[in-house]
Amino acid sequence: MSSAASPTLKWSFLGAGVFYGFFHNRTLASQAEEKRFQQEWARKEKLIAEAKEKFAKLNAPKGDSGVITDVNDPNFDIDKYINYALKE
């Protein structure tokens, strides 16, 4: 190899490496951003599902007699439940 071609090849490879590194970094950054977006979306879907579940539980229809039999329900009345249980 001639002495004039050696530095030219070195600088060419250096420039190619810099360009490759720049574009590869942009690709990795966009993939990481997409992954963060997907994780945030999944978190929001989970929160929505939990909220729907809690809403359905709180607004569940009462039994045929109108007595709430779920002890964890905030509207649970022990007196009504005891009277209901004694009737059955």
Automatic annotation (TrEMBL):
Molecular functions per Gene Ontology: proton transmembrane transporter activity
Keyword Membrane attached: yes
UniProt KW keywords: ATP synthesis, CF(0), Hydrogen ion transport, Ion transport, Membrane, Mitochondrion, Mitochondrion inner membrane, Transport
Cell location: Mitochondrion inner membrane
Gene Ontology biological process terms in this record: proton motive force-driven ATP synthesis
Any Gene Ontology CC annotation: proton-transporting ATP synthase complex
One protein family per Pfam: ATP-synt_E
Superkingdom classification of source: Eukaryota
Primary subcellular site in the record, as a coarse category: mitochondrion
Similarity comment: Belongs to the ATPase e subunit family.
Stated role: Subunit e, of the mitochondrial membrane ATP synthase complex (F(1)F(0) ATP synthase or Complex V) that produces ATP from ADP in the presence of a proton gradient across the membrane which is generated by electron transport complexes of the respiratory chain. ATP synthase complex consist of a soluble F(1) head domain - the catalytic core - and a membrane F(1) domain - the membrane proton channel. These two domains are linked by a central stalk rotating inside the F(1) region and a stationary peripheral stalk.
Protein name, per record: ATP synthase F(0) complex subunit e, mitochondrial
